[in-house]
UniProtKB/TrEMBL annotation, chain A:
Name this polypeptide is given: lipoyl(octanoyl) transferase
SUPFAM superfamilies for this protein: Class II aaRS and biotin synthetases
Pathway connected to this protein: Protein modification; protein lipoylation via endogenous pathway; protein N(6)-(lipoyl)lysine from octanoyl-[acyl-carrier-protein]: step 1/2
CDD domains named among the record's database cross-references: LipB
Record key words, sorted: Acyltransferase, Transferase
Ranges for domain BPL/LPL catalytic: 34-218
Automatic annotation (TrEMBL), chain B:
Superkingdom of the source species: Eukaryota
Subunit structure of this chain's protein: The glycine cleavage system is composed of four proteins: P, T, L and H.
Cofactor binding: number and manner: Binds 1 lipoyl cofactor covalently.
Gene3D superfamilies: 2.40.50.100
Listed Pfam families: GCV_H
Role of this protein: The H protein shuttles the methylamine group of glycine from the P protein to the T protein.
Name the UniProt record assigns to this protein: Glycine cleavage system H protein
PANTHER family listed in its UniProt record: GLYCINE CLEAVAGE SYSTEM H PROTEIN, GLYCINE CLEAVAGE SYSTEM H PROTEIN-RELATED
Protein's gene: LOC104781911
Cofactor dependence: (R)-lipoate
Organism (species): Camelina sativa
Amino acid sequence: MRSPRTLEVWRLGTVNYLKSLKIQDKLVSERKSHQIPDTLLSLEHPPTYTLGKRRTDHNLLIPQSQLTKIGAELHYTQRGGDITFHGPHQAILYPIISLRSIGFGARNYVETLERSMIEFASMYGVRARAGNKCETGVWVGDRKIGAIGVRISCGITCHGLAFNIDPDLNYFEHIVPCGIADKEVTSLRRETDALLPKEEVIHKQLITCFAKAFSYDDVVWKEDPSFILDTKDDG
Amino acid sequence: MALRLLWASRVASHLRISVAQRGFASAVLKDLKYADSHEWVKIEGNKATFGITDHAQDHLGDVVYVELPDVGLSVSQGKSFGAVESVKATSDINSPVSGTVVEVNKELSESPGLVNSSPYEQGWIVKVELSDAGEAEKLMDSDKYSKFCEEEDAKH
């Protein structure tokens, strides 16, 4: 008989990318030493382009010097995956969870992240699917609606997924998104005629789909985001 | 599964070692040692060759990139020294032994998929000169590792 699994959820609003990396580093370290249970960060970023470990910056189509002009930052990270864009009205989940305690490897983990997003999309009548081989992510037809890029260190995850609710899709024109040249990016707004509720509600729905896909018994909603936003080594 | 056992038997007879017969899941080779982070190591005198196990590659998915350490790097048992990428996930690889890197498998830069298709042979990752041969005692033998994998897989 397995012991009940708890997920702690922090809803953080808009968080600068570098700050979110610092928060994740701290949480990964705390999770490794069993100081905290599995934890989920739910947030958005200001306009930010990010690259994965393979540093595929040839997929950024404008000079880096132009980025400030369009109001965006660029960051190199240790996650898997290619270049992507994060911005307002894109729901991001960063799970800091122990894969060893559920016997998951990278493949199962990523497939379950995909299932979370597919289940969420279906709440709005959107028929999404997992990507084909080499096209990890969530698609509606040939249009990408959800992206994944994760890092696993000693069996603890960080980075995660990004689901397009209604971001400014023009920002994606400046990159070859995820290194896939001939496919469009889309959003929930574009794919459904359903009335979208307030984004807080949408984020909560996505979180609930995640918790269900990963079979958590309890979800603890942490009420005071300043507890982890006010990190002492604020940069 | 029959194909996997056939493959494992062929590898085993080539390497002149015996295969632990398991009814299901991944191949585990006797005469190798294993870490609980799913790396295998073959120790020959004061040199060791290691990589990731069949269980590991199966759970990772198709490997598209292997981050290799530099020759001359010091590695420590249980500490990360590199990473593999698969399905948009980078997974750290931990060194099962301590020592100094003397050779890396450059083939993996062109053909990272060797880690999947041949995890114990052509998909080897690093060769080190051991700094502490006694550390191998802390690793699992093939039977213990097989059980360990079964227990992990039973968790979900």
